[in-house]
Amino acid sequence: MGDSGNLASAYNDDSVLFRVLRHLGWDSLADIGYFTLPTLPVAALAGPVPFQRRLARRSLALLDARPGQLVLDAGCGRGDTTARLAAAGCRALGVDIQPAQIDQARRRFGDSARFAVADATALPRRAAEIPLTDGSFDQVHCLEAAFHFGHEGRRSFLSESFRLLRPGGRLVLVDVTSRTDQPIGTLDPNGLVRATWRFDDLEPCERYPLMAADAGFTTRRILDWTTPVLHRAAQLCALFAGTASTRAGRQALCLRWPGLRTLDAQDWDEVIAVVRAHRAIGRVTRYTAYVLDKPADGVTGVAP
């Protein structure tokens, strides 16, 4: 993984964006959310949590995991998706490089699932007393975490997942990707987006299947969730930034979410700038779900 020390503090700082997200209800899940057009007005009033849960359900459904199967949840964050796997009867292990996230996951879900601090791009031999040996897992799940890893880290993660999976096993990788090879720095010249989420680059969406094939996987499905995830989240962000640009709008937001009253004028200006920087990057990003199978017969490639 890239700068693991830097990443280890992500999602736990007190930046103004994370303060705002927490006031909006962003807590046990850290994904963007999956929004349908009719639900956008609801999302504007209810906050992101129901839609984050919907995205997690859709990602986990691609695994088609069965009770009793051993599943690794890579980049598990605060453990919500790992706990969902455990509730479905799986033997679930969640790993994340961030100790603070794993501490929260253990407090919340430690009775039903196992958690360990570990780098998903260079896994240890054992985590939470579970051996991470070749061919020992039935499924691997990674929701909205691999964009942190860097290009070489993503290659390593694909190789580690292939090693870990039994023949016929499955990796579901859901990630923020790029439409082009254009350097992300040209769209984020002040580093507002990259510093917020602790990443250096995004993988071009068409390169992922090639990297997966190099690791030995067969690409079973590719789903483009750009519109329901990124585009509609961008609409909500634009609405928030526009409302926050006026005094009356800020007062209205504070009535709905009283915790926002802790923000001063400088905080409001900063969060508006960060949201606008996200929108600039959003023009060249995609949100893609990859269903990757480890062949049972040794034949690799792209499924017909």
Automatic annotation (TrEMBL):
<dbReference type="InterPro" id="IPR029063">
    <property type="entry name" value="SAM-dependent_MTases_sf"/>
</dbReference>
<feature type="domain" description="Methyltransferase">
    <location>
        <begin position="71"/>
        <end position="169"/>
    </location>
</feature>
<dbReference type="InterPro" id="IPR050508">
    <property type="entry name" value="Methyltransf_Superfamily"/>
</dbReference>
<dbReference type="Pfam" id="PF13649">
    <property type="entry name" value="Methyltransf_25"/>
</dbReference>
<protein>
    <recommendedName>
        <fullName>Methyltransferase domain-containing protein</fullName>
    </recommendedName>
</protein>
<dbReference type="InterPro" id="IPR041698">
    <property type="entry name" value="Methyltransf_25"/>
</dbReference>
